[in-house]
Amino acid sequence: MKLRFWGTRGSIPSPGPDTIKYGGNTTCLELRLEDNTLIVFDAGTGIRNLGSKIIEQNNDKHINLFLSHSHWDHIQGFPFFLPAYREEIKIKIYGCPPVYDKLKDILTDQMESRYFPVNFDELKAEIEFEEINHGQHPIGNAQFSFIENNHPGTAYGYKVIENGRSLVFITDNELVPENGSASTWNDFVNFCRRADVLIHDSQYLDKELIRNTGFGHSSYEQSVKLGLEAHAKHLIFFHHNPGRKDDEIDRIIEEMRQNLLPSNSEMVISAAKENDLIKIE
């Protein structure tokens, strides 16, 4: 599998000189299975650049788009996704209940004339919606599974396993919520168990969570603890705070490595960067 980040930022796009290294676009990931099947996670503003590359290379006629949830920073790039305007392209959009139940309406509503000059019904691509409501969902030789996150309005994390290699993508998740949880800490540890790559929401530091409890996000420290308990091989911090500067993220990564990783740990820690390509092999 090959993974590329097209959008790494949370909440709102944050372009500028202080976010060049890690990126200012909101959530979008490209995953290539071994047979080159295209999987896209989320349709934040990063999907615009991905769409331009797809059209330029003219190789992908079938796109699988998995949406974690329908908050704006995860769908706002879809109206600018050029493949959706090409009649030779088929896009299958996946979602989990209850997010799935109103998914088409949500994508359609954001393209009403009050907000956007092109209506959803005017898109030329063949667009289908598919609900994921069982434990394993196969695409090619890969198996997809999901877990319900702790996030207002509901969100889901995904795991992909192909030929013994695994990727876990969990964004918009409050690992330790104050008032009940859809999934427990142990649920997440088991879901992430021995992941080759674990991408997890790390919008805050522990000290920042005090004033942001209930927003549905986690801290760097919590993500490291999760990765260690799950014995993940590579932990990637994700959903960067829109106000977090590149040099601040650099310092946080180094602090996490020095202060939280046991001396005998083999887990790699990094932060998601736009355009970074990661091979999972």
Description of the structure:
- The chain has helices at residues 47-57, 103-109, 185-191, 206-209, 220-230, 246-260; strands spanning 2-7, 28-32, 38-41, 62-66, 90-95, 126-131, 137-139, 142-148, 156-162, 165-170, 197-201, 234-238, 268-271, 277-279.
- With 281 residues, the protein is of the alpha/beta class.
- The strands form two sheets. Strands 6-5-4-3-2-1-14 form a seven-stranded mixed β-sheet. Strands 7-8-9-10-11-12-13 form a seven-stranded mixed β-sheet.
- Strand 2 and strand 3 (38-41) form a beta hairpin.
- The longest helix is centred in the last third of the chain and has 15 residues, at 246-260.
- It starts with a strand and ends with a strand.
- The mean pLDDT is 96.
How is the topology of this model organized?
Layout: E1 2-7, E2 28-32, E3 38-41, H1 47-57, E4 62-66, E5 90-95, H2 103-109, E6 126-131, E7 137-139, E8 142-148, E9 156-162, E10 165-170, H3 185-191, E11 197-201, H4 206-209, H5 220-230, E12 234-238, H6 246-260, E13 268-271, E14 277-279
Parallel strand pairs: 3-4, 4-5, 5-6, 10-11, 11-12, 12-13
Antiparallel strand pairs: 1-2, 1-14, 2-3, 7-8, 8-9, 9-10
Helix pairs in contact: 3-5
